[in-house]
Automatic annotation (TrEMBL):
Residues 84-251 form the DUF4130 domain. InterPro entries: DNA_repair_put (IPR023875), DUF4130 (IPR025404). This is DNA metabolism protein.
């Protein structure tokens, strides 16, 4: 049995695929280095990310998969649920081992799993784009903290880059402890290790712009006035706006008097 570890990047995972084929040593497990558990059985192989090897694997997949299937495979990597690496590897192995397209072969567990994972990630991406709310800081930066179920930050930055092209902004993933920063020219993904008391990513009171509370309260007043009590439908409301997203929304925060 072969147990592979890698650095957690998509390129690293593709490098694992390359190494497994080169060695003809199929993985019994694939784990990120910092999460890997020691095993008494089998051989441990620590894979160093090689962008050239990763590119060769991806180019091979591009020749055999539609753009939609390529996206679904990448989304499965961002899905991050237990065993996702093995699902990706099984899918890639099925692709390279088949002379025909495997995209509609839902009898294969890995194909069905990739499609389901991609749908979940795609849904989370759109919800994050809809529910992210920025707070203006004292230095003019628009800041938002998010805690998505899946690693969708790389997928949503393009949306905010286009929508807020004239503003500096940062979005911080509190679960994964990294963020995206837009400096009016380009977006950069940056690691940010905050101290324990700041792990939730909320700006300190003194760091917030003086008018931020006023803007929030005005939005809450507007929301209250456009709401039609007779048309309230709590079940439908929760279906479209699950409770776990309420922490991002100004209209769901405790009210203060103006």
């Amino acid at each position: 049995m072969y147990h592979y570890t890698y650095d957690g990047t998509f390129e690293g995972l593709l490098t694992v695929v390359f190494e497994a084929y080169e060695r003809k040593a199929w993985p019994a497990s694939i784990e990120q280095e910092h999460l890997a558990q020691p095993s008494m059985f089998g051989q441990h192989l620590a894979v160093v990310t090689d962008e050239e090897k990763a590119a060769r694997v991806w180019q091979g997949l591009q020749k055999k998969l539609s753009v939609g299937a390529q996206q679904a495979l990448y989304y499965t990597y961002l899905w991050e649920q237990p065993g996702f690496e093995q699902t990706v590897f099984a899918y890639v192995k099925l692709v390279f081992g088949s002379s025909e397209s495997i995209e509609g072969n839902y009898a294969a567990p890995c194909v069905l799993q990739v499609q389901q994972a991609a749908k979940q990630v795609h849904r989370e991406k759109h919800r994050m784009e809809a529910f992210v709310r920025f707070e203006k800081t004292a230095d003019g930066l628009f800041y938002a903290a998010v805690t998505p179920d899946f690693n969708v930050l790389p997928l949503i930055v393009r949306h905010f880059e286009k929508r807020y092209a004239d503003q500096r902004w940062a979005i911080y993933d509190t679960s994964r402890r990294y963020g995206a920063y837009y400096d009016l020219q380009q977006v950069s993904l940056v690691q940010m290790e905050l101290p324990p008391h700041r792990r939730q990513g909320v700006p300190a009171t003194e760091a917030r712009h003086a008018e931020e509370d006023t803007y929030r309260q005005l939005w809450q007043v507007y929301f209250d006035h456009v709401t039609i009590p007779e048309r309230r439908n709590p079940k439908l409301h929760l279906r479209h706006m699950p409770r776990r997203y309420w922490k991002y929304l100004s209209e769901k925060q405790p009210r203060k008097l103006l």
